Amino acid sequence: MDFQLFKVETFIPEEYVNELRFELNKVGALTVDEKYDNCMSTSRVKGSWRPLEGTNPYLGEVGEICEAEEIKVEFTCKKEVIRKAIEVIKEVHPYEVPVINVIPVMTNYF
């Protein structure tokens, strides 16, 4: 199956959301049907992680479980800009290893 549209999810500290929106929109990742831009959703979530030896965590201490409020950012993105969108997330995101979920979307299944 050749997917043309993808849903992208990432979890980021709230203070980075506006910068992420601006940079994603700049590369066309938040444009829908060439009629709207800046299209994304956000929701508050509570994340948890434990940094292991050799890491340099943005938040938390090595070996200890850390919990913090994050913002889940979701948007749909065309195939042509998906790589740029992932690059932007990695550039803006403060975490060493940000979670970036890329999910193919079926649009013509009826």
UniProtKB/TrEMBL annotation:
UniProt entry keywords in alphabetical sequence: Hydrolase
Taxonomic superkingdom: Bacteria
UniProt-listed GO biological process terms: response to metal ion
InterPro entries in alphabetical order: DUF34/NIF3_sf, Ion_tolerance_CutA, N-reg_PII/ATP_PRibTrfase_C
Stretch forming the signal peptide: none
GO molecular function annotation: GTP cyclohydrolase I activity
EC number: 3.5.4.16
Pfam family, one: CutA1
Keyword Ligase: no
Protein name: Putative GTP cyclohydrolase 1 type 2
Lineage: Bacteria, Bacillati, Bacillota, Clostridia, Eubacteriales
